[in-house]
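hey can u run this one w/ magnesium ion bound, need the structure tokens asap thx
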Amino acid sequence: MTDLLTHEEYRAIAQSLDLPQNAWIDGAYRPAILGKTFETVNPATGVVLGTIAACGPADVDFAVAKAREAFEDGRWSKLHPGARKDVLVELSRLMLRNARELAVMESLDAGKTIYDCETVDIPEAAHVIKWHGELIDKIYDQVSPASNGHIAMVVREAVGVVGLVLPWNFPLLMLAWKIGPALASGCSVVVKPAAETTLTALLLAELAAEAGLPRGVLNIVTGSGADVGEPLGRHKDVDMVSFTGSTVTGRRFLHYSADSNLKEVVLELGGKNPCIVLDDAEDLDAVASHVVNGAFWNMGQNCSAASRLIVQAGIKDRLIAKVKEHAREWIVGDPLNPEVRIGALISKAHFAKVSSYLKASKSDRILMGGKIVGEGFIEPTIVEVSDRNSSLVREEIFGPVLTVVPVASFEEAIAVANDTEYGLAASIFTANGKRALRGARMLRAGTVTVNSFGEGDITTPFGGYKQSGFGGRDNSIHAHDQYTQLKTIWLDLTDTADTAIG
Ligand code: NAP
Ligand code: MG
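ok here u go:
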């Protein structure tokens, strides 16, 4: 467990950080070809942290060409898997060596609490890189049972040049989820971080070079979705794109692919995840603690946030009382204060969007919170909805807002839970083991947790049903499927002199 510093100590580190400013392409920091820059802001204070290279299509072309060059000459793609492992394990070590700097940088850039950055984002990102590195020299290919006269090998090959387009809610961790398996598989990558959160990706690229990653294999092209994301999505020499972000932008990547080179597209999108609590759930304190964590962790800016509490009527009031008790412990404030659990929302625009949901409905009952705590901060809020079709129930708010929907029965709970266009995650709390498993099977979601809320683990696949995405899974050995493709190689065993074999 990480030893946390004091608020004052974190502030002192924040003052002394040397922040990167330029894109990282072909093993070096570079300004944008057109010389443009944009400002990156600390969402907790509104203070401009610095300027960053605002890249465009020409920078994307340059980065893709360098990534292609690296892939084709095999400086990384054709290394022995054990050699790739050594570099990734070393990168993980260097991330841990620089963990404090990365944590403070992430907190400043994204408004995330230093507590989360120190205890989850940074150590987990380092763990993910190491896990995929250590896996890569332990994966075997297959031989098919095709016929006695042949050997048919089914081998996996790196897909080539990969575009990785990232969201701002877990900047370094989402980067690790994608570059871990992509680099381990031997691909070369061009990363487009969210414009709001580019700093830790740049520092990581520097650490990767120090760890021995050859130039051109990992490129970070900074800038907006329109100027960098779209040209990457449309690029004819990019073999696949793995995207995490909103459903709206995910759809665009399918168009980009269809209109260009039919690159593979893997989408990890939004969620409006149900948390079912049945009358017979045991230990309401523990349930409440999971509910609060599920709804409010990372200010609710979490695609698998459990944002719909579907609770059986008999237990509702007792559960809500406990949830409020636990939620009150989540202090809102300066993200650099290690006591704080709710930091700032990512931007003014996002803050305005989340606030608009709180103002929207007059017929709903606000059970807790609903207040704006200074510009950019919203306290944990619980709303009991009267209309199951309201935007509070249907739309991904991506803020610390939990909607409560009371139900009469198990069957109704499952029906309400599945009544969404999303299907990323779901939870069910009940002491009845059979109903728990039946529910887990009936819930249309990529991850179902029973009597807990959890993000899962590097060992388990993560991704969605329905409009929460498709095309592959992040995490676990299955993540490697995104970045590899299958090839069949046939060997004829027949002896031309004597065809009678085995
Ligand atoms: P977003 O607006 O879709 O942005 C994601 C990325 O796409 C950013 O790098 C963004 O660039 C880029 N982008 C935006 N418009 C683009 C365009 N027209 N063409 C190409 N690229 C474009 O999503 P976000 O607001 O950053 O993230 C929040 C969303 O991500 C939520 O809906 C959440 O549920 C989802 N999410 C899903 C998962 C998952 O694993 N399923 C994980 C985390 C988040 P700029 O922002 O720099 O312009
Ligand atoms: Mg920022």
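The radius of gyration is 24 Å. anyway lmk if its weird
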